[in-house]
Amino acid sequence: MRILETNVYVGPSLYAHFRVIRHQVDIGALEEWPSVRLGETFISGLTEALPGLSKHGCSYGEPGGFLRRLREGEGTWIAHVWEHAAIELQNMAGSNVSFGKTRSAGPPGHYNMVFEYQQKDVGLEAARIARQLLLSLLPEELQAECAEEMEEGFDFASERDDFIRFAQRKELGPSTASLVRAAEEREIPWLRLNQYSLVQFGHGRYQQRIQATITSKTPHIAVEISCDKEDTHNLLRDLGLPVPQQRVVRSESEAVRAAHRVGFPVVVKPLDANHGRGVSINLIDGDQVAAAFETALQSARGRSVLVETFIEGMDHRMLVVNDELVAVAKRVPGHVVGDGRHTIAELVDIVNEDPRRGIGHEKVLTRLELDHQAQRLLGKAGLDAQSVLPEGEVFYLRSTANLSTGGTAIDMTDVVHPDNRQMAVRAVQALGLDVGGVDFLTSDITQSYKEVGGAIVEVNAAPGFRMHVAPSEGEPRDVAGKVMDMLFPPGSPTRVPVASITGTNGKTTTSRMLGHILKTAGHSVGMTSTDGVYIDGRLSVKGDMTGPLAAHIVLRDPTIDIAVLETARGGLLRAGLGYRRCDVSACLNVASDHLGIKGIDTLEQLAEIKRIRIEV
């Protein structure tokens, strides 16, 4: 099972009109071992490791089709199994991919194994782990033959969990991914600009950018204010909005004195942290405050810590986009409910059996953990992991309700009281954010805060969308769509016209002529050719620039309003097109000048390459 050649296609290619990876593989002696010969032990081991394979339709087009292929008739070959395993591993890590295609590539045992990916490193790593999994499941006589290819000490369970964490570091986060989906639904093109969450929507002069959920329209000063909890508190207080009493302290003794001034119980938290890090709540004496100060300091960027009055009530995240309250979620800390029989540790395992729970942001919910925070709360209550809770008793394993630490979210958007709705909008407007999340504590969100009390404890820039797009209970909200509609109001342009020029001869001359005509007509033209990349008639990058990298240089440029892209055979074969569609395409000619390169030996094969940009 050797990989002979790899191509990562960033756009339309011979194999698909979207991103795919192609491994040309040699399965060697396994050509004589179809799945039915590998046996039921191999198949059952595979389905136990990758239970999601039961949903793969394969050529049957219905769930279970792939498993039928494994067991019926002559079965299927290991390269095809490898393709499905690579796809399923990505699905387990949260990547929504499904396309795959494995076809013979000439000599016996050689195959083109093609599969969809969302992030290239994740796709490549999925193929590596899938290969090792299949090798580990082979019959013993075959494992002996493949010993050199097998990684020593391979353990699929640990590899799988490490892969899921790796994928979360590489893939777009749930909030950014929801924005990308909303853009695709509106046929807005997008480009990922770094390995994190910086994404460009739209092309050329029409582009907008986001970083997580901060947009290119978000004022910098608004973000700075939201990151300073003291400034945020003071701005909201001065507008008459409900906030707790608060003091900024820089020492343990100051923290204790401040707690006595504002009155117990209190909350102690870092001035500038997020995700609930370093927060201690419902502290009732000076010793607890002193200990909480040190905890907060560990998560603070500086030495400033906040002491504020503890507000009774449930934690609600109120999301405001473009001066409109678009979603509200009641956040409940990660918890277990006693049944009088199971220990707390066993209850955690039972909760984690929920298929919606996974590692980190892999799924809708995050797994509960009995870590040091949970142990601290257990100890405070006089319990431990082996304690058995009475039936119906709820025990919270976290003092904060963040989804990233196992919390759940209940959608409350339709029942929010108008006073609370107006309060949230005013709070976000006070800071100047276009997208902001208000953390509001109240006993009943359906009643006015003026009647039942409550307080704003934070206003967040770059609020997470996960709890709104996939709540634990209630109706999902299209909050990402609201952001897209703000960035690109319906009817506004999102992409520049793209002309794609290809052919065997004359494409550079044609591209330069077209670019010149458009420039004289008053356009700012981005052009790629074998001479280089030209922006508004000036050479920007010299050299043969006819591949996807050159196309991205043009489409990312914020000054151009039209693109003329010479597209050559080499870039298409190596990495595909750098754009998903064009407005006009010209194939000037197909001649035999360039045959015999990279497996293109006939005019028919060359024409198949040239027609890709016509198809898109």
Can you summarize this structure?
With about 625 residues, this protein is of the alpha+beta class. It has a 6-stranded mixed β-sheet with strand order 25-24-23-26-22-27, sandwiched between helices. It has a 5-stranded antiparallel β-sheet with strand order 19-14-13-20-21. Strands 1-2-4-3 form a 4-stranded antiparallel β-sheet, sandwiched between helices.
Keyphrases for this structure?
alpha+beta; six-stranded mixed beta sheet; five-stranded antiparallel beta sheet; 23 helices; 36% helix; 21% strand
Task: Please explain how this structure is put together.
This protein is α+β, with helices and mostly antiparallel strands and 616 residues long. The chain has 23 helices and 27 strands. Strand 13 and strand 14 form a beta hairpin. Helix 4 crosses helix 5, helix 5 packs antiparallel against helix 7 and helix 8 packs across helix 18. The longest helix has 18 residues. The two termini are 34 Å apart.
